[in-house]
Amino acid sequence: EEEAKFDNIIFAYARYNELDTPKISSDNVSFTSNNAALNDEKVKLSILEQQKRSAELEAGIKIPLRTGGMVTLSSPLENKVSRGLFNSDEYRSALTFSISQPLLRNAGRDVNEASIRIAEYSERASQLSTRLQSIRIIAMVDKAYWALYQAWGELDVRRQQYELASQNLEMVKTRVQEGLSAAIEVNRAEIGVADRMDALIVAETNVRLAQRQLNMLMNDISNSGTSFIAPSTEPSLLRYEFNRAKLLEDALAGRLEILEQEIQLAADQARIGYLENQTLPLFMLDYQYGALSNTQNNFNNIYQNL
């Protein structure tokens, strides 16, 4: 939109007017003429009844300049028709050229292209913000995936512990029946099963919470019901040795939020320069030239000697 303000503009204007005037008394005048007999003669003018019709057309092109000026090339056309005591049908055309250039306010490429630069800065800042947000979302999804993987692993451990506790309870009951263990051992085994059941319920709840977090970050609500998501990608258990000083230096130098603020500062500087220019006086240089044709009574002849 900002770049389009320097596009050439093809324009056309049309106006039609029709009058049916009655005879009407007008001013009293006196003559000064090359004919001495008419000098100082006093007369009263009257406008006779007549019908007038006029049509005006103009077409051309406007060329906005990046220096703030405007060049206009156009060709107006005029037709006037009168019906009355003195009939007439007249055509007239012209070729016109004009240029207008501000010299102080709104003068220069820097001022007139400021809005384009500001729009470019805004676009770059938006791209950086989008990239930063995308990186954050990818990182959060990655963390949420491995949190779900961890929750599933914990659930498997808690399920195995519950199964082992149940098996231990059956074994203790058998030993008590055979007289190899005291009856109090059954109560201890049942408490162990209850504890493992409680831990199993907590582990299942953590799996659901981790799955819900992953669904939210992926903007997927289709799996937010009773179905489970089972992670299939296994972790790559490799040890990485980083150059911490170099990693810290690169992280500080490539922070997207700081780069976004720098771009915003550049846009603010462009706005300041534009607003400072708007405090200058409005001083314009205008030039206009027009080549007018002779009046003709035929449309075909008006452009012959323009």
What is Rg?
A: 45 Å
Protein structure class: alpha+beta
Shape: elongated
Write down how many β-strands occur, each being a DSSP E stretch of 2 or more residues: 7
Biggest sheet record: 5 strands, antiparallel
Annotation field: number of helices? 5
- End-to-end CA span: 39 Å
pLDDT < 50 stretches: none
Q: Could you give the order of the helices and strands? A: EEEEEEHHHHHE
Strand order of the largest sheet: 1-4-5-6-7
Provide the β-strand percentage band: 25-35%
Task: Name the average pLDDT.
Answer: 88
Helix content percent band: 40-55%
Walkthrough of the structure:
This protein is α+β, with helices and mostly antiparallel strands. Helix content is 44%, strand content 26%. A hairpin with a 5-residue loop joins β4 and β5. α2 packs antiparallel against α3 and α2 runs antiparallel to α5. It is elongated. It starts with 8 loop residues before the first strand and ends in a 14-residue tail after the last strand.
Name its key features.
single chain; 306 residues; alpha+beta; 5-stranded antiparallel β-sheet; two-stranded antiparallel ribbon; 7 strands
Task: Write a brief caption for the model.
The chain has 306 residues and is of the alpha+beta class. The protein is 44% helix and 26% strand.
